Each structure stands twice: as C-alpha cells, then as structure tokens.
Amino acid sequence: MSSPTLYYFDLIGLAEPTRLAFHLGGVPFTDFRFQREQWNEEYKAKSPTGKAPWLQFEDGSYLTESRAILLYAASKAGLVPTDFTELAVCEQAYSIVQDSLPPLSDILHSHGDRETALKNALERLAAADKVVASRQSKEGWINGKGMTYVDLAVFAFVKTFTDRIEGVDMTKYESLQKTYNAVNAEPRIQEYYNKE
Ligand SMILES: N[C@@H](CCC(=O)N[C@@H](CS)C(=O)NCC(=O)O)C(=O)O
C-alpha cells in the first residue's frame, strides 16, 4: 500500500483533514482534484461508490468513506489515539460536528429554506462547541492532550463555515474556534497553505 491517490473535488469538503494528516505525517500521496463537470463526465463512474472522496492504492485496492480515509491517513501521522477512552472522546466530537453537515450542505447548494438550514446548523454547532469545551486542553486540543485527527476535522469544518457561509460569526463558538486556532498555528499547517 504505497503512495496512494486521494480523489476529491477541488474543495476543502470531506478531504481536507486527510490531506492535512498526510502532509503533517510527511506521507507521500497524490492529491487528485477534479471539477464538478469532470466528476459528472468521468470520475463518478470511476468512484467505487459513486461518491467522493476515495483513496486509491497502487495495488488496485481502495478505501472509501471520508472518516475511514482520515483514520488511515491520521494513523500514518501518529494522530489517532491508541487509548480507547481518548479515541471515544475524539469520535464524540467528530460525530457531533458531522451533524451540522446536512444543513451546511443545504446552505452551500441552495437547497430548501436557507434560514431553517442555518438555524439547524447553528444549533448543532452550539452543541458541538459545548461538548468540545468539556475536555479541551488550554491550547485547544479536543482530547485534552495534543493534536489528533478530530482537530483536523474541526479545523476544516470551521474553515468552510468561515470562508463560505455569510452571516455566521464563528468566533461565537469559542471552543471550536480555539481548536481551529491551535491547528492553524502549527508551522506545518502554515507551510501547507503558504504553498497552495
Ligand atoms: N459518507 C460519505 C459521503 C460522501 C459524499 O456525499 N460525497 C459528496 C461530496 S462531499 C459527493 O460525492 N457528491 C457527488 C455526488 O453525489 O454525485 C463520506 O463521508 O465519504
């Protein structure tokens, strides 16, 4: 399983935490990005499930589902806790943040009523903020100790909200913002975005 290719849209979306984990771990991979038209014409049919992202290995095997792919990349970078209680704390935060994704997706794709979707997303964000606060370290790490894969997921999520959703003040969600700031302050993360 050497030098895999990560297939996804040219977006943060569900692939950015994996890209960051590979980068932080110094793990070689190909960051293959397609546009929406290319997806419709070519890559949807190539995807093992008709969805993206997926991670293709040189031997023909693959991993699909963003959470599984992130865990794979993060394990290579030493960003998955080996202690199961710590892992449960990370998964708790991952799941509750994921709950905001359906309304977030509705807003981004202009599906349904924006106000209702925004209200739902913000309600879930407030819940996620509360849960993250309960164990977060003073530096901002969600497991209370150091950086893990879930910090990368929260970073990408806050970045999407900040960059793409008008009218939301993410600084109100202090714990999520603190995690964002902790990840953003890492020199390897700065290097990643300065290179782009
Ligand atoms: N459960 C999947 C969801 C994947 C998913 O819904 N991907 C979207 C992009 S974020 C997609 O492929 N959309 C294009 C389509 O459905 O044709 C995961 O976490 O990887």
TrEMBL record:
It holds the Pfam family GST_C_3. Gene3D superfamilies: 1.20.1050.10, Glutaredoxin. Residues 2-81 form the GST N-terminal domain. GO terms for biological process: glutathione metabolic process. Residues 83-196 form the GST C-terminal domain. InterPro entries: Glutathione-S-Trfase_C-like, Glutathione-S-Trfase_C_sf, Glutathione_S-Trfase, Glutathione_S-Trfase_N, GST_C, GST_superfamily, Thioredoxin-like_sf. GO terms for molecular function: glutathione transferase activity. PANTHER family: GLUTATHIONE S-TRANSFERASE (PTHR11571). This is Glutathione S-transferase.
